[in-house]
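Ticket closed. Logging final result for SpoIIE family protein phosphatase.
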Amino acid sequence: MDADPLRSAVEQAPFILLVAEGPQLRIVDVSRVTRLMLGDRDVAGRPLREALADLAGQGWVDLYEQVYRTGVPVTGQQWRAHITRPDGTVRELFADFSITPWLDGDGTVRGVIGGGTDVTGIVKARLEAERQTEEIRQQYRHARDVVDALQQVLLPRGLPLLPTARVAASYLLAGADTAAGGDWFDAVPRADGTVALVVGDVVGHGVAASGVMGQLRAVLQDRLDDGAGPAEALAAADRFARRVPAARAATVCVTVLETRTGAVTYCTAGHPPPLLVTASGEPCYLSPSGAAPLGTAGEFPEAAASLDEGDVLLLYSDGIIERPGRTVAEASDELARVAADAVAGRALHAPEANPAERACTQTVELLVRGTGYRDDITLLAAQRTAAAEALDTRIPADLTRLGALRKTLGTWLETVAVTDEDAFALQHAVGELATNAVEHAPPGGSVAVGARLTTVGTAEITVAGPGPWREPRRVSERGRGLALSSQLVDELVLDRTGTGTVATLRHRVTRPAALLGHAVPAPIHHPEESEDMSIADSGSGTGVTITGPVDAATAERLQHELLYRSRGGTVPLRADLSGVTHLASAGVAALHAVRARHRAHGTELTLVAPPGSPARHVLALVALPYA
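Final structure:
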């Protein structure tokens, strides 16, 4: 058949259709629907990654390359994409798609064929309809209860706004009905210009886990707020974990960042090491410090690193690197790549979000939609920034100039990313103070207003007037606004002198963490991993072989079997973990408990984990010896 009719058929296909050929996936042809969707850009003959550069950081090009490399088709439903038009605007769409290999007659993969349907209208209509239903309102009320519980037990009141750093976090629960998960995070700003960052994971879920989590967070927060370093704070948490069985084997990463110099001190107590992403989008994992989980008789050595201005440091829980269908090594590589794209702005279009926020939200969405997730996911990021500009302005003592002052202060509050709620409180309080100063200033006088962010995450604003402060008469209707304003901020101090008055207000300013849920789409379908764990004698009489996943569902049985076969830890035992497909925190806790019993009896528990195995990667993180 002549090639022109084929091209005509592709051109007239009433759906998204793209055909690419060869290792570079040069685009052979696209349908008219596809061309219009892409903004009528010239793509013919160009490599896919070059022609669709704006989609490269969103996972689409990776899927085409994966299909070409493996020959295995993939499908997805309602994936989100941001496409940059020629005029610079961005179009958001949702698509159902199927990407299949293009095979030659001998079965060799020649290229890739991608087909899809634009379902943006359907998705947006569904989302709008759901918002109107009683079921969604009930889910929302339930979600609010979950949020309240998490905020009270797990999460800080908010993430601090600092003069030389931006801090962000996201949290995704493993189950919609889970009242509380095993993860937590914290960000503790300190007067010396440092901020302590914490991500931790307690074994288990539910009320018991959340209670232990709240206590561990309180211990760490108290020590870090008092100026302790990572090792000292973790030592205090470790003493608590040794007294409380439910806290044992909890993993924690504690990092102290000197925001002005970029110096980093950290300790990974059985936890994955932080990921450093440079301002240009180059990722690098920091080295684990070598510490063991809490309550397992380990030490807490510290390690050091450094951040340049613009760099982002990302702490995370193991839920993001223990996703279905991925080894820990593969998931770690994906995390580094996707987080780097998010930080550099190469992923989804979000001009209102800073790099730390994009690292926390876009990274979760882009990774989870491709694999799903089996455990809670927590991300905490901090970016070093240039020092926030302080505000120093002066207005004539004229009531008509108060509007200009509100505008100037509003611009500064927006620049330093103060939330609308905090901005309202600050604007209201400053307005009352400035009004009083203007009314009681002598003719020709002026009022000075200064504002800055402090190292402990407080907005400090001063209003200085040349006249003495005058309290409103009790019979006057004036003064009530000032009383209300003093209640809206954390602290209001008046310094009266014979020549003038300086009013200083201080208010802690924070930004909320992103509690993710319905924003995360359904993932590509993957065959379910076998949930069966088996334990068999190795034939030597003193050894066992474990295969399958060791998680919350199987860890207790593993612990029981190992203790039974070692006579309660009184005889040596060799456990081969080569066939373990997944080693979760519950499994780590079980292995630590068995090892502790062996050590108490002076016997050895030998764990065999060959290079490249999932168990080897996890054992190295949690400081469990292996052969």
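The first helix runs from residue 3 to 12. No further action required.
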